[in-house]
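Aim 2 progress. For ABC transporter ATP-binding protein, the working sequence is reproduced below.
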Amino acid sequence: MDLAVDLSGITKRFGAFTANDGIDLAVRRGEIHAIIGENGAGKTTLMNILFGLLQPDAGSISIGGKTMLIDSPAVAINEGLGMVHQHFKLVPSLTVADNIFLGMEIRRNGLIDRAAQVERTRVLSEKFGLRVDPQERVAGLSVGIEQRIEILKVLARNARTIILDEPTAVLTPQESRDLFQTLRSFVDDGMTVIFISHHLEEVMAVSDTVTVLRDGRVVATKPKNALTKRELVRLMVGRDVSFDRRPRTRNEGAVALEVTDLWARDDRRLTALKSVDLTVRAGEIVGIAGVAGNGQTELAEVLSGLRPASHGRAQLHGHDILDRTPAEIRNRGLAHVPGDRMVRGVDRNASLSANMLMGRQNKEPFARLGVIDWTAVHGAMRALIQRFDIRARGPKDPARSLSGGNIQKVVLAREFTAGGDMLLIDQPTRGVDIGAQEAIHDEIMRQRADGRAILLISTQLDELKALADRILVMFDGRIMGAVDGAEMDEDAIGLMMAGIDPADLTEAS
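Predicted structure tokens for this construct:
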């Protein structure tokens, strides 16, 4: 078998934690090999070892049949490996071509030959169908174009094996399909792709071979055609998990949240929200879809009192909430799960009990006459640890001792039990394992059944499809359109996520 990469017995420990435990991975030349597993399964650690960003405690690496020590990314690049990270590493003030050749500039007579860099970029982009303007500055480009630039950076360094870590996390469905076509063209050209993903649909759509990791070990390596989605989930989690649309009865009540002509600015003082109108009723889940960076964060911050509005109106149960403090808005009945759990969601140095107490430190049964009853607080936190399956030793553990996914569960547990009848939930399952995602979805549906109004912001269309009664699509700070959650047309949503009204295409045809 002609192998591009062969890892044998790779083990990596971080203190008492074993991230990779004797992993064997053989990747054939000229295939798309997907690596899939829950958070903490060891996927990214393994790829960082392959690319020289980490060193294994045991095991060996062979590239093209040659065993070698890869002790830095420079060595990996020299051996034909390239890695596109989940978080892009571009310089916004530079042009596309300058970013691609940063650190390996083409020079002529001691000076950077920018004309040659532009031409080389154009040749690479045309060869692989990665359309870019070499002379355009990166600042202001879409995330889809930014990803093409990152891939072109790897290609410019003559990579023959490309590692992609969660490459579709910020892409529209159409951009994802374009990427898959590009990856297939790589393979047709004799290259090899290692594809890390959480998304089962993507793995089934694009891969040739799938390796499943669980708890730092290889559970299975099989041809994609020999697997089903259900079997993949079972291999990843160790049990059956359902992500089908959750059953529900129609139970919409009175309008809980009404937003009219809402405008707001971002941190750079640029307009981030543009005449946003929406309503959410009791017993209804309204989803907000869109590529990250199109106003969703600002919308959540304005509604929760963390950012001022420029203009417009937002009412919760008939009471104005714009220009109110977060505490005042919470007292009106809003519970908020922020998109960035580390910045807005928890105090990492405080205990789980202290984090659970936030927002109710003056309320019974946790406080009387201004004195906190820590026995009651710890008891309530123990119950939440059990109910939400938070992997912690006890309520006195500091939040920083938990994984990111378990910290997310702490935030969800606090907000879902805060007593508010309006839930503002931003990226509820970001960084959470597949098994926990199912439990979180079930909990959201329980909140809906109890009559709470829910505004759910998510970049995951399958999550919105499973949960939302209605889906609003945001692009460039505007609501582009709305679709029924039960009849979700992913192509139509994808067009709106890219700023295109599907009706315009229909009229044009």
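The mean pLDDT is 89. This observation will guide construct design in the next reporting period.
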